[in-house]
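Thread title: Can someone regenerate the structure for this chain?

I was given the following input by a collaborator and told the matching structure tokens would be attached. They weren't. Posting the sequence so someone can regenerate them.
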Amino acid sequence: MKKIKNITRIEYNGPHGWWVRIMYDKKKYSKFFNDKKHGGKQSALLSAYAWMKNVKEKANIPDTQLFVGGGARSNTGVRGVSFCKNSNYYFASWNDANGKPAGTSFSVRKHGKEKAFKLACEKREKMEKWRLAGNVYPKDEFKKKQKKDLRQYTKDELIHIMRLKKLELGRVPTSRDFKGTRPSYHKFCKAFGGWNKAVAAAGLRKP
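Best answer:
Regenerated them for you:
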């Protein structure tokens, strides 16, 4: 049977059945569907699936097999949008349907703080819809995106960006989290002499 997102089969330590768990926007939705109470394994699964669809519809949760984030951990309150005080830029980041990361930035000096934030939010929202539609980057196009970032970052800017990434992810970022982003992990390695040294410089790991 193909795995259904948010539905887990329980067959140990108690009654058998299906457990529906949904986390979205810092809210938890959970319910257990017992095989015996719902007329068997298959009927219980159908009941669990119907309940899950109903919850998602009422809570306005996107119904997709892809990852869907709720509340934000960024310093702007908007998931995927962060502000770097040192560089005076708003950064918008996203992934494609295969998890390939990308991003862009908007200058406060050029657009003004309010407009730069609005542009970053609009870009993030647009690319999130694009991702949920199942779209992925063509290989050639993705390589072009990687080569376009000619900007020079200071060490302080890179440290600040890495710390923001940690807040967004809830863990110490790896080089893969900055693959294809702006700045890319190459910028960190060049500035600090290696990825691990960059992480240590940001105070996220002992050197």
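The helical segments are 41-59, 108-111, 113-132, 139-147, 155-169, 185-192, 195-201.
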